[in-house]
Write a structure and sequence with these properties.
five-stranded mixed sheet; mainly beta
């Protein structure tokens, strides 16, 4: 499998660069979770990092053509996600035709 050296910013991993496995699209995962064992034998603490685009180097360089990523620390952890199915969208407009005054 292919990997890419990806920098980490913020939190306990600030300034470190780790090789992160790339997916089939050539991008690293959107979130990176690092379990840290508890020294007293309790449940491990999980550090969560989110993938964000890296700022390009110099304006005239070709690095702006390829998308590079970095991970930023997310102290609040993972946000719960809601499934995005077409039939589960909230209704933004009331039922009926737009010109219908009866509803």
């Amino acid at each position: 499998m292919k990997s890419e050296d990806t920098p980490f910013e913020g939190g306990p991993m600030d300034g470190r660069v780790l090789p992160v496995l790339l997916g089939i699209t050539g991008h690293p995962p959107k979130t990176y979770r690092i379990p840290v064992p508890d020294p007293h034998g309790g449940p491990p603490t999980v550090l969560v990092y989110r993938r964000v685009p890296r700022t390009p180097g110099t304006p005239g360089s070709r690095t702006g053509l390829t998308r590079r990523w970095k991970y930023e620390y997310a102290p609040e952890g993972l946000q719960p996600r809601r499934l995005n199915w077409p039939w589960s969208k909230p209704e933004a407009t009331p039922r009926g035709k737009p010109d219908d005054t009866d509803g």
